[in-house]
Amino acid sequence: MSRVTLIGKLNAREGEEFVFEGTQEQCYSCSLRRTCGALVAGRRYRVVGLRDGRVQKCPLHEGGVNAVEVEETAIEAAVPSKKAVRGSRVSVSPPNGCTDDCEVWTICHPGGVDGRKLVIEDVVGSTKSDCPLGIDLQVVKLRGE
After folding, report:
1. What DSSP character marks residue 86?
2. Is the pTM of this model over 0.70?
3. Three-state secondary structure string covering 5-65
C-alpha cells in the first residue's frame, strides 16, 4: 500500500530509498507538515511513483520538495544464523565489539530497524565476507508488522 509524501526534489525519483528521520523542528510552522510527516519515523521507504511534479518551497531541502508515492520496504540485515528462520520475529542489534572498518558493518547496522521487532520475510544467504568476530551470520530481509 503506497502513501503520498513530500521529499527533496533532488531525491524525487522512482526507486530512491530513504529512512524517514521524523518531523524536524523547522517543520512545525509549515502548512505542508502533515503530508511530509505522514510516515513513521525510523522506517525505510522506497519511492514507487511521482506525482504532478510541482515543486513546493521547503527550508530544509535545497530546490524544494516534490510529491511522491512511497511504500515501506524490506530491510536487508545480518543476523546470527541460528535466528535466521523465515517467519520469525527478531530484533536486530549489532554484535558487541563490531567496528566501522569491518567489511560486513553496513549489513549489521542497517537503517530503519530502530530497535523494533521485525519479521524475517526471506533468508537471502550468508554474508559476502566473514565476520571478524567469528559470528556465523545470515543475510535476511525484514519487514515491519
Report:
1. T
2. yes
3. EEEEHHHCCCCCEEECCCCCHHHHHCCCHHHHCCCCCCCEEEEEEECCCCCECCCCCCCCE
**Closest CA relative to residue 1, chosen from 53, 38, 42:** 38
Listed residue (142, 16, 15, 22) closest to 88, CA to CA: 142
Yes or no: say if 144 and 43 are a contact pair by the CB < 8 Å rule: yes
Question: Do 137 and 98 form a contact (C-beta atoms < 8 A)?
Answer: no
Instruction: Quote the radius of gyration of the chain (alpha carbons, Å).
Output: 18
* Alpha carbon distance 111, 73 (integer Å): 11
CA distances from 118 to 27, 51, 80, 83, 137 (A): 29, 30, 15, 12, 17
Residue 68: closest CA among 115, 1, 143, 5: 5
Q: Determine the 3-state secondary structure of 106 from DSSP.
A: helix
Q: What is the pLDDT of residues 11-65, one digit of tens each?
A: 999 999 988 888 888 888 888 888 888 898 878 899 999 998 889 998 888 899 9
Element (H, E) at 131: none
Which amino acid, 70? Answer: V
The Cα-based distances of 66 to 2, 29, 53, 105 in angstroms read 16, 19, 6, 33
